[in-house]
Amino acid sequence: MSIAEPPPLKTQPSKTHDPLGTAKGLNSGALGLIGNTVIGLSSVAPAYSLAATLGYVVLAVGDKAPSMFLVAFIPMLLTAFAYRELNRDTPDCGTSFTWGTKAFGPWIGWMAGWGLAVSAIIVLANTAEIAAIYLFEVLGLHAAAESLAAKVLLGCFFIAAMTYVSFRGILISERLQNVLIAVQFTVLIGVSVLALSKVFGGTAGPQAVTPRLDWIIPTGVSMSSAAQAIILCIFIYWGWDACLAVGEETKDSERTPGRAAVLTTVILVATYVLVGYAVQSFAGFGDTGIGLNNPENVDDVLTTLGGPVAGPVAASLLLLTVSISALSSTQTTILPTARGTLSMAVYEALPRRFSTVHPRYMTPGFGTLVMGAAALLFYLVLSFASANALQDSVASLGLAVAFYYGITAYACVWYFRRTLLDSARNLFMRGIFPLLGALCMTWAFVQSAVDMLRPDYGFTAFGPFGGVFVLGVGMLVVGIPLMLLCFATGSRNFFRGRTLTADTEVKVPES
């Protein structure tokens, strides 16, 4: 028996009427494999993600940070297989919402869609602020970087500008991202290679340490520390599923998005391990200077190394790269979420207004604008309530991501349960691998949620509960009354299983 990729799946006859009746109106065939992969990489924002989390991963597991990148990559890859298989069967821009509904019914499917929306709202607020802060630093406007009013003003401008770019169409989004992602990887890989060459050449300084093979072996790490590091690593990988959300705008929508998702995760793990090794070996683990155990460096160990590695020009370039990375993610995060609301509205899980597509730009115009507005509101509320709360919201993001990734992976196993034994390929790609990925996501969610309950976890606390837990779980729980509100105000057909079931033929653009 072989586990080679089978020929494309044929669309099965519909047992229920397609609620839209025609293609969703998106720009069919606008993206190829490279463009789709660029969207996925840009949504992840590797430079920003590393700058924001690498120090905390080192704080949790010491020199085992590269091993955590590998450990977290495994459930990501297994989940990517689930996404690929589901996309081959049902290439719908609703992704987790659509697949969760077809597998488990409308209530779980709706919450999967909400998990994606929550993740996007949280990260949009943070990427906009990071882009603003780092741009001010590049320009030498240090006072502005510390000013709440200046940060919020520029951050709001970035959210509005990137919402407009997303509104204008998928092609302009792809062209912008081609440039931004090229800058990110050129700088990240260039600085990493230079740092390692100095370490091996003996010119990195007395703080440097020789790289060791056991850095990628996850031994000697407690379960709690591993969970803390993995939930952070889930955050730095999160976003690759944007490949699937723009699948209906991609050539060969049954195959290309799934391939792009797997390719994106492989590129990311290689980059993260390289950067992890470069940072650890060049900076060392001292508690002074650029050492990774220096508390002043934990928020951003990446740009701290710019000057020592390649001088002030490289330091400014790294600052600019992180700003570009955050700005890039601000734009690409809007894309999948707006398309998710489009799909939800098509099947009457959200008000019909969200199903409107701009006739000229062929984008979900209303959903895009609503996402931008929601991110603006969340950003303003947390910024003026507490800067620490905004930081804690990033730490809580992994919970929402693990939540809807887990639902999607479980959905793959259940949806294909009757065909798992048809071939070895089906058993592994639709059964064993997705199930392992789902179990990993479940463990990461539960273990992290238990740890986050502690009031000393993060920067804020609400009575006896940690602020990270309250923000992470609280944002997910908010989805329940919103779901009930949708049920009560016009979505009853969806929740009664009349618009989307396991047998519904999901409409996709004709190639």
Automatic annotation (TrEMBL):
<feature type="transmembrane region" description="Helical">
    <location>
        <begin position="148"/>
        <end position="167"/>
    </location>
</feature>
<protein>
    <submittedName>
        <fullName>APC family permease</fullName>
    </submittedName>
</protein>
<feature type="transmembrane region" description="Helical">
    <location>
        <begin position="216"/>
        <end position="240"/>
    </location>
</feature>
<keyword id="KW-1003">Cell membrane</keyword>
<keyword id="KW-0472">Membrane</keyword>
<keyword id="KW-1133">Transmembrane helix</keyword>
<feature type="transmembrane region" description="Helical">
    <location>
        <begin position="427"/>
        <end position="446"/>
    </location>
</feature>
<feature type="transmembrane region" description="Helical">
    <location>
        <begin position="261"/>
        <end position="285"/>
    </location>
</feature>
<feature type="transmembrane region" description="Helical">
    <location>
        <begin position="107"/>
        <end position="136"/>
    </location>
</feature>
<feature type="transmembrane region" description="Helical">
    <location>
        <begin position="33"/>
        <end position="59"/>
    </location>
</feature>
<feature type="transmembrane region" description="Helical">
    <location>
        <begin position="305"/>
        <end position="327"/>
    </location>
</feature>
<feature type="transmembrane region" description="Helical">
    <location>
        <begin position="65"/>
        <end position="86"/>
    </location>
</feature>
<keyword id="KW-0812">Transmembrane</keyword>
<feature type="transmembrane region" description="Helical">
    <location>
        <begin position="466"/>
        <end position="488"/>
    </location>
</feature>
<feature type="transmembrane region" description="Helical">
    <location>
        <begin position="394"/>
        <end position="415"/>
    </location>
</feature>
<feature type="transmembrane region" description="Helical">
    <location>
        <begin position="361"/>
        <end position="382"/>
    </location>
</feature>
<dbReference type="InterPro" id="IPR050367">
    <property type="entry name" value="APC_superfamily"/>
</dbReference>
<feature type="transmembrane region" description="Helical">
    <location>
        <begin position="179"/>
        <end position="196"/>
    </location>
</feature>
<dbReference type="InterPro" id="IPR002293">
    <property type="entry name" value="AA/rel_permease1"/>
</dbReference>
<dbReference type="Pfam" id="PF13520">
    <property type="entry name" value="AA_permease_2"/>
</dbReference>
